Amino acid sequence: MQILPLFIAIPMGAAFVLAMLLKARHSVVDILANVVTAVLLALSITLIMTKGTITYEMGRWAPPLGIVLVLDGLTVLMLLIVNLIAFLATIFSISYMERFTAKAKFYSMFMLMLTGLNGVILTGDIFNMFVFLEIASIASYVLVAFGTEDEELEASFKYMVISSVGGLFILLSIALLYAMTGTLNMAHLSQIISSQKSGIGFLFTAALMITGFAIKAAIVPFHAWLPDAHPSAPSPVSAMLSGVFIKTLGIYAMMRVLVNVIGISILGRAWGIMLVLGAVSMVIGALLGLGQKDYKRLLAYSSVSQVGYIILAFGLGTPLGYLAALFHLTNHAVFKALMFFNAGAVEYATGTRDLEKMGGLSEKMPVTGITSVVGTLSISGVPPFNGFWSKLLIIIACIQAGRFSYAVIAILVSVLTLAYFLKVQRLAFFGKIKETLSNIKEVPVPMRVSLIVLAVLCLVIGLDAFRIVQGMDSSWLVRVLLNPAKEVLVNGTGYVSSILPK
Amino acid sequence: MNDRSGMTVIVKTVVRISASLILLYGAYIVAYGQLTPGGGFPGGVILGGAFILLCLAFGKETAFRKLSVNAASVLDSAGALIFLGIALSGYAWGVFFLNFLNKGIPFHLWTAGIIPLCNIGIGLKVGAGLFGAFIALTAFRVVKKGD
Amino acid sequence: MMLIYVLCMILFAIGIYGIVVKKNLVKIIISFCILDYAVNLFFILIGYKKDGIAPIMMPGQDKAQFVAQTVDPLPQALVLTSIVIGLGITILMVAIAIRLYDKYGTFDVMKMRKLKG
């Protein structure tokens, strides 16, 4: 699999080439950035059909000494989501970022963030993962502060302090793991951990890991930065941050380390903390979202709530729970990116994010209006859109695992979600148009393309998922992408055998 | 003195002599990174430090004449691209990041394959990046309005 | 020997305390640096060995003896990387703090509350 390092090399090269093109014309920069993300998307599509686990030894240094890149079902799924959203975000940026002066700088940082995300997904070395995590984080701090307005700088500072502390927690736990095992390769780590008897040190390490990744994923006790940081970024970046960034850096990395490396069996009953964290995130995110007047801030709180769903489903620890979590992760990336693009489109046309200053926008902006309806119905779980199926699976998984109270919470939060998104629809898109907004126009073509592609994806995934009624495997998405990804998690620490030669 | 910017004449004279020596020392640390303690990062910091010293002693105009901000930013990217280029050229021999050059004899200057080349890239990147960061923190202050 | 790790953890706690309690941007940045150094120090101590020698292997040296004598070089390489990352974050923090100072004329967090809750 010669193309694996390209997922890191291409965006990194593009980032530095773009950084040299500061004086170039905007069209040149646009074309370069879009070609790069399109190539990455094409490469990740070619990976769909790979079977089993493939490792790539960097510089022909064999594990556990060398750094390996690992490709398995989970990696394929995550790469596909990240590069899809990145591609649509760069298309969206063509028009959206025109009002900022330093477009090349924006794309440069965007590519650096993409490098970090792809690196975190692919790497099989735990310290390497930390480095890529920090690359992505530093790029995102810059992107949040990109507008250099007061709020954006403040939000970026807050985000930077909290998130860097999270990174240091992760580093500390990596140091502890190294002290206890003397290796950094994830498969080798897992092998040594499972051969050792005492679990208390690993339990402490896992607690530090959970804290660190929970800060990166904005799970509730640590969510304070997200509602400031995500709305402050330019909309394409908000879509990336909410859609894939917190999932890759928070959830994917946490699952990879806890499930595949440390192993749930060591955690024992402490694993139940994930259920609590998930449920609390869901409820608090939704309740805080209800009161918001700022369009993007409301979406940010909804991200906290939806991430709670994913964590809850992971916390169940059953195969169906994993499947539902991965399904919801995919869906949330699609519809939350769509909704942030919508918010960006509205902001682009009207110049405001305050919901009370909007009204009747669907009249003037039909594409944005219709796609936002699709996004709303998806996120609140109305059939036939994709959100319905993943939420249904999460609820079924809760019931199957005997966690009835959590199932009830999931249903209630879903109703709350519908409530606050209907508020958005009513205030922004329906009703009478305000006089101040009478001469707004529909957004330019590139932005419309991104919106329509995502809305169609919402519908297509939803229709495809209809077939799970006839059995799980009849749905294309479940069969081809989600099942291999689920197998990796179900396999747990069996991850080792496919990477280390025996 | 007609040139009022910067520090006193003593500092300027010393810096005029020592700056080039510091640059040379930085280049030595970069070039001998594979043999002695040092390498791309420390050497790069020393290279950047020489320009920061110039900037402190003579004021930023003189320093910019030696190395403008744009040049620093281009060098910064170039350093990273050199490193990436070396990594990618491993593909020509089959594997990403392959050490494809002859390893040579230990404790001679031209040894360890691609590592000296990587060090040069890292040195450029770090030196230019540190100088750029220093300039960004000190020189480009937004003048505060209304007080 | 255990004491030194405990001191590291105390340093870590001081950093966390500073970040949570202090209201001044500069003090927050300094606290972050303390936190960063605490973790780096902890990492480097893992590879430390009393009276250890530099890990350069000479031809014909006995492997077991070599391992017993030398310090572990890997944490040093890793800490170098993490110092660079810390440097990047600190520079960015300082840059943003300077911009905030230009906007507000103060480093006090309580006086710059454009964001709500």
Describe the secondary-structure layout.
The complex is a heterotrimer of chains A (502), B (147) and C (117).
Chain A: H1 6-20, H2 26-46, E1 54-57, E2 68-71, H3 73-96, H4 103-122, H5 126-144, H6 150-181, H7 186-195, H8 200-217, H9 226-232, H10 235-262, H11 264-267, H12 273-290, H13 295-316, H14 319-350, H15 361-364, H16 366-379, H17 386-400, H18 404-429, H19 445-465, H20 476-491, H21 495-499
Antiparallel strand pairs in A: 1-2
Helix pairs in contact in A: 1-2, 1-4, 2-3, 2-4, 3-4, 3-10, 3-14, 3-19, 3-20, 4-5, 4-10, 5-6, 5-10, 6-8, 6-9, 7-10, 8-10, 9-13, 10-13, 10-14, 10-20, 12-13, 12-18, 13-14, 13-17, 13-18, 14-16, 14-17, 14-19, 14-20, 16-18, 16-19, 17-18, 17-19
Chain B: H1 9-31, H2 40-58, H3 60-66, H4 69-89, H5 115-138
Chain C: H1 2-21, H2 25-46, H3 63-69, H4 73-104
What would your notes on this structure say?
Chain A is mainly alpha-helical. Chain A has 21 helices and two strands. Chain A has one domain. The longest helix of chain A has 32 residues. The mean pLDDT of chain A is 86. Chain B is elongated and about 55 Å long. Chain B has one domain. By secondary structure, chain C is mainly alpha-helical. Chain C has one domain: Helix Hairpins (Orthogonal Bundle), CATH 1.10.287.3510. The mean pLDDT of chain C is 84. The interface between A and C is medium-sized, with 30 and 31 residues.
Main pleated-sheet profile of chain C: none
List low-confidence stretches of chain B: 143-147
Helix and strand string of chain C, N-terminal first? Answer: HHHH
Per DSSP E runs of 2 or more residues, the count of β-strands of chain B stands at: 0
As a whole number of angstroms, the C-alpha radius of gyration of chain B is 19 Å
